[in-house]
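Summary for the steering committee. The consortium agreed at its last meeting that each partner would contribute one worked example illustrating the joint modelling workflow. Our contribution is presented below. We chose a case with several input lines so that the handling of multiple components could be demonstrated. No manual editing was applied between input and output; the record is shown as generated.
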Amino acid sequence: MSINDDLIGRSDVNDLEAILAVSNTERDEVISCVSQNAEAIFTWDYTKGARPSLDKLYEKAKVSMWNGETDLPWDTPVDQEKLIAEQAMANSAAGIGLADFDISGTSFEKWTEKQWVAFAVESENWTLSQFMHGEQGALICTAKIVETVPWIDAKYYASTQVMDEARHVEVFAKYLDTKLSGYYPVNAHLKMLLDDIVSDSHWDMTYLGMQIMVEGLALAAFGFMHQMSIEPLLKQLLRYVMSDEARHVAFGVLSLREYYEQLSDAEMFERQQFAYEAAVRMRDRFLQQEVWERMDVPVKEAIELVMRTPTRQLFQMMLFSKIVPNCKKLGLLDRNDQWLRRRFEEIGVIQFEDWVDTSDEYERFALGEELEPTAG
Ligand SMILES: [Fe+2]
Ligand SMILES: [Fe+2]
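What follows is the complete predicted structure of the assembly.
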């Protein structure tokens, strides 16, 4: 059995049939239960500031809270179809338009402008729905970290992140409910990843899965959408969420750096495998298979088409622009004969290894700072 079979349930990481065979079987359920398997840890060492970088982050978080109900301009009218047309013109490289699809000889050849707009609307509904589900994953994982991490400075900080994540779920849910035109259940690949993170018994795996992988990707994806969007409410919502997310990713890097320095090769190998599995699950989830199903078109053909477009490939790679440097900073790339480096080479994202890591990038994302596109 190959390592891929073991970790991600298929031997070829790019096997599209196998990826599409995984779908959400609980679409109509209102709740989903996952066993946590971790011990709750009390600490009797209350020395505040024993880990100065976490203490600094905690103090910063306390004064950076915002109110999703009153700080965002909810009275902004949002006309999804009109915005899509305007946005396609404003940035034809957005990746959700039709500008660079080579559709000759495919089922899309006869698609009208109206169908493409309908697709873009569904795509936006799907994307925001998955952001919302991911935010709930973060809410649950951070509550778990409060219980399982052994350091008081980390418990303090994690408690502020619980509040941040509640706010994030709240604003994405409100945006979907009041401004968009539909909702999607959680994507099966994202749910598998969230379940893995929640059910792992090691406290550091929650950080690695959530703060490093899921939130690292979210920070990049929100940044991309923030840059592309011309809708002022969504732009501001994403900007506010990003200012929090940058702290969350820093929390993961700062906490794990100390801990991973003293792990054995075997222990590090487990973490490398977990990071790889998470990376693949996230890559799979961005194929948006449910959108194509709802559009009632051949899903495999549609995805193969989208995957070939240059903007899509760029977007897909950019999602890893925070994750790879952070994994490098944690020593995950090169331990055990560069195991994770080889995997990241295979999925085509290793080029980000020397981009800035996010251990102290949160200052740059603070509200009131001008956001510049990140580079190496
Ligand atoms: Fe969040
Ligand atoms: Fe977060």
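The domain at 57-63+78-365 is CATH 1.20.1260.10 (Ferritin). Residues 93-99 have pLDDT under 50 and may be disordered.
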